[in-house]
UniProtKB/TrEMBL annotation:
One of its GO terms (biological process) is alcohol metabolic process. It holds the Pfam family ADH_N. Its EC number is 1.1.1.2. This is alcohol dehydrogenase (NADP(+)). Keywords: Metal-binding, NADP, Oxidoreductase, Phosphoprotein, Zinc. GO terms for molecular function: alcohol dehydrogenase (NADP+) activity; zinc ion binding. It catalyses: a primary alcohol + NADP(+) = an aldehyde + NADPH + H(+). Homodimer. Gene3D superfamilies: Medium-chain alcohol dehydrogenases, catalytic domain (3.90.180.10), NAD(P)-binding Rossmann-like Domain (3.40.50.720). Belongs to the zinc-containing alcohol dehydrogenase family. It comes from Ceratocystis fimbriata CBS 114723.
Amino acid sequence: MPYPDTFRGFAITAPEKFKEPVPYEFKPKPFGEHDIDIKIEACGVCGSDLHTANGGWGNDKWPIVPGHEIIGTALKVGSKVTSVKPGDRVGVGAQVLSCMECDDCKNDNETYCAQWIDTYGGQYRDGTLSQGGYSSHVRAHEFYTFLIPKELETSAAAPMLCAGITAYSPLRRNGAGPGKKVGIVGIGGLGHFGIQFAKALGADTYALSHSAKKKDDALAMGAKDVIVTSADDWDVPHRRSFDLIISTANVFGLDLGKYLGLLKVHCKFISIGLPDGDGWKLKPQDLMTNGAFIGSSHLGSRKEMQEMLQLAVDKGVKTWVETMPVSAENVGKALAKLSDGKVRYRTTLVDYDKQFK
């Protein structure tokens, strides 16, 4: 049964089969007056997709169709939708709904709403399980649907809708800008956005990595230099010199003390990398010498998403992206490549019109 009653996609059926997606049909939630149906044209492959598909984050909802860096064409809009019309090129990130009524939702903190629903793996009030962008269509609330600037190419814009905003929001909220020294830990899919957006906001930007093998890439992205954290006493020349550090590192067992020592008094270390396994190594004493703060960040607000997309246009932020035609085989290959750490720096699934005819 075709759209609008049934959507088609590629699902993961169990953690041990994350490299073996299968064709899957599913029914979306009932269409609401603020909903938008989108015919998908491209979807980024995010680290969250891998951690969900392989069970690393404890997902227990199967089958699951991942994908939350979605761009497509609006087909149908609800009776109360005002921000989008049929035919618009739009995007959906990692959230499709919240309560819209709490203090968080009313103060640009909707990604922290206690009733948020993820683009995939979330459960609507009627019991429907949300499914993601490795599929023919997605149904989302207009508040979580964004017009995509015409200057941004589809395959490059898609990864900005999760990875991009995840890096941008903590930079924006914590004062990255002219006269500030910002460190980005990790030169991967998140880190490559962190470097570019920190530079675009006007900050003096440094990349921190365990090796120098990506140094040329980091400099091309806008970093002033790369600090190699595997060197002896690597931290000593940089102590108390950073205004903000954003960690995108997808590793566990990080010795946090040395990183906190890089911060000026009462400055912040914000983690947006969420690895599987154990957490950081940290002693209370590591916080005392400079009164450093540790925090995290979850996605970004609608307002920040719109700002970020326009900043990408204005400052020429470019996703370093590889594309693959969407198919069961290529979804498996994309997740395997991500698992093996071989992506430079994002992957976007394309050619949806050929797969979902």
